[in-house]
Amino acid sequence: MLELAEELARWSAQGRDFAVATVAGVRGSAPRPLGAALAVAADGTAAGSVSGGCVEGAVYELCREALTSGRPVLERFGYSAEDAFAVGLTCGGELDVLVAPADPVTTVAVRAAADGASVALVRALTGPPGLLGRALLVTQDGTYEGGLGGGAALDATAAREARALLHAGRNGLVEVGADGARCGETVRLLVECRVPPPRMLVFGAIDFAAALVRAGKFLGHHVTVCDARPVFATRARFPEADEVVADWPHRYLERQELDARTVVCVLTHDAKFDIPLLERALRLPIAYVGAMGSRRTHAARLARLREAGLTDAELARLHSPIGLDLGARTAEETALSIAAEIVAVRHGASGAPLTTGTMPIHRDARSLARR
Length: 371
Hints:
By secondary structure, the chain is an alpha/beta fold. The chain contains ten helices and 16 strands. Helix 5 crosses helix 10. Residues 200-342 form the XdhC Rossmann domain.
């Protein structure tokens, strides 16, 4: 639901009633991830998608029914061999879809998310009667409003679980005891998180950086270009960047509040900039650190970083030479290879051709925590 926050906030401001179908479980190969949503307004207007087309018609009708009945439902859609193009996922996977009319808690959640706040929306998928679709809104500091209908202990436990996912910036499924404890009857919860875009810090205002800025924006990052040379670090050279900063890279990095989703790309291949920057970046709990340069440059860089005191474990986090082996020549091809490596690292994938692999194309999106 929160992926449609801006649109739903507009509908809410206009006083329009609506229902939302949200992907609440994925098994096997499915085209849309946990949290993907299709919203339907009372006038029939639709926004979003839960399946890329396979089951949209059936889900649309469920939303219309929910608007009439006022009751949430949880439906499962899977591959239909008899009529694969009617109601079924032709890719062979299964989706659980929670369909619910908007309520006061979800309305506050979409408005907060649309305003740029970091929020988590928790909704019950299983448990005692009456819990399905009940919602809890959790903020980054752990405060919450609404309720799952199972009592204060359940709400407090759900809020703690949601806050952990919120700090990681990802959606997930969790299972907790119906009384808030981790025993006896359980409740399965869908947790949707909306956080600011992940950051990409590009150090080195060179031509390759302009192409990487475009790739980073395409992937949904908030992109900053930083270079110690003011003549190169200009808005005119990088109009698509969110920020352009003239400062020594390591000093700029030290002032930033970064999270586990942050990506650092070092394109300077100049030791006086690279070494103090990488010395700090490789000790931060961030998602990716890559550095441009030849294999000879990389070997010399590793030697200097070891002299600076970095451990083998810290150096193992460095992706250098940066990018996947695509045979890239141009700035755009190089940016593509770097972006591809960032995506592969994020998902723990190999980056190998799909034709040579045996793993499912779409990884199992379930993050059900069994505790």
